[in-house]
Write a structure and sequence with these properties.
Blueprint lengths: L2 H22 L5 H6 L6 H12 L2 H14 L4 H25 L4 H8 L3 H33 L4 H51 L4 H4 L12 H11 L12 H16 L2 H4 L8 H19 L2 H16 L9 H8 L3 E3 L22 E5 L5 E3 L10 E3 L4 H8 L4 H39 L5 H24 L5 H25 L5 H25 L18 H17 L7 H11 L5
Antiparallel strand pairs: 1-4, 2-3
Helix pairs in contact: 1-8, 1-17, 3-8, 3-13, 4-7, 4-14, 4-17, 4-19, 5-11, 5-13, 5-19, 6-7, 7-8, 7-17, 7-18, 7-19, 7-20, 8-17, 8-18, 10-14, 11-19, 11-21, 14-16, 16-17, 17-18, 19-20, 19-21, 20-21
Length: 584
Amino acid sequence: MATQTLIYLFVGLSFALYIGIAIASRAASTKDFYVAGGHVPPVLNGMATAADWMSAASFISMAGIIAFLGYDGSVYLMGWTGGYVLLALLLAPYLRKFGQFTVPDFIGERYYSRLARVIAVLCLIIVSFTYVAGQMRGVGIVFSRFLEVDINTGVIVGMGIVFFYAVLGGMKGITYTQVAQYCVLIFAYLVPAIFISLLVTGNPIPQLGFGSDVADGSGVPVLAKLDATLTDLGFAAFTDGTKSKIDIFAITAALMVGTAGLPHVIVRFFTVPRVSDARKSAGYALIFIAILYTTAPAVAAFARLNFIDTVQNTEYQATPAWFKNWEEIGLIAWRDKNNDGAIQYAAGAPFDGKPVFADERGASGERVLQNASTENANEVYVDRDIMVLANPEIANLPGWVIALVAAGGLAAALSTAAGLLLVISASISHDLIKKTFVSDTTEKQELMYARIAAAVAILIAGYFGINPPAFVAQVVAFAFGLAAASIFPAILFGIFYKRMNREGAIAGMVAGMGFTWLYIAFFKFWRPDLNVAENWLLGISPEGIGFIGALINMAVALIVVQFTAPTPHKVMELVEDIRVPVRR
């Protein structure tokens, strides 16, 4: 069977499965819509949490970022996995014991303030929309290549799929859909990794193959060969870092703290029956997440080696089909600067910005680029987000493996997108409408408002997917930074510092979110020409500034507490009750 037919078959069957689950488990009440009725078993909730958390950034973009950044890319591994441990141990059981539907619910009740609830909702919406932009971009990339449509059309198709099962099923439908999506995405990630590890090292276990010798009889370890290959081409060695220590620390810390403040992950711990089940599901989720995250560095190294071996000094006419397929949609490009008909891959930016294609073809048949840079010898542009998706094609794996990766990439992006959109809709319908502005809203009306909010959120998410500010993993890193600077400190103080009052929490959230958002917006949107290390505050990049935002949040909150009214006694009793462990 042809590869394209297999892709349509695999993707079609997976979509049919997701939609079938959404129909079978559609929400009949607000409790079903917000927290799946609170009856999800810990193992299934662990799988759903893993799928919710391992987004397109984890499946599609993380290995690609590591493939090109090398050692510097390890911040994503350390930050995201470390942050999940922080969330599981420090926050999840206490929030489950609190027993509400959403994060703004906790903040509104804990800080006895409608204004605190509203600000939490606004912070949550900003974080979620930033995060979901990366997911919709990931959907567009998968569709654009494997279903042979342009990226914008791919985003629109993905919007339609998410709309159907998120709006219909709510958290109940999404939870069981995400269990299926986890099974699809982890199988899709591991199968090609095992194949490629065998081809490159002869070892079927990618984690062990990563430290093994290349299977060419040379006795050279994979990392040593990759370092030598990259330095010969003028790149930094794969195992060397180019970022400053302060930036590495700040990015890792921002990702960790941001993970612990992500609303769509936190809400997953509201869906289990008991507090003890929240702890169990956190442990299961960590195991399920580790399977992919321990595989990613190996996938990154193998992908970069295979890419160089396939592309370097190859005549364009002899390039394999995968190169030309990705070239057609503008995610890989070549400009023959020295007119020798062969591809030269080296350090340096090949084009000014991203490639701009002309209508005509070049002498070798390549798509002609109008904005080639003449400053260096590099002739190749490659979008980092394609590496995991293109990996099976680069390694010439069977068509069914390529089809499986397409289905897995869509599962990863859609699972997180659905969770984020549900958080947005719940915050608007439950926290803004029901709890703040229209308190006499009936359950039926609230459910209707939640579905309308989800539909509007999908439209906005689609816009950001079509017009993303950066690579998928970088966009997601910005979302984590915003969560770190706004939501996490309020939750942390809310659980562990009884004296924190509403004035302190509100001032902290506003200061942390305002500073972090302005910093990211300045360097990524307003003045991207200044986005270099010498212009950053303390040498910290926009990806890591959320850590400074979190410190500002905490400092402002602690200062304001000293000059404002103390926390009411009944709220202090609530905090004590949350922190006391119970056997249930």
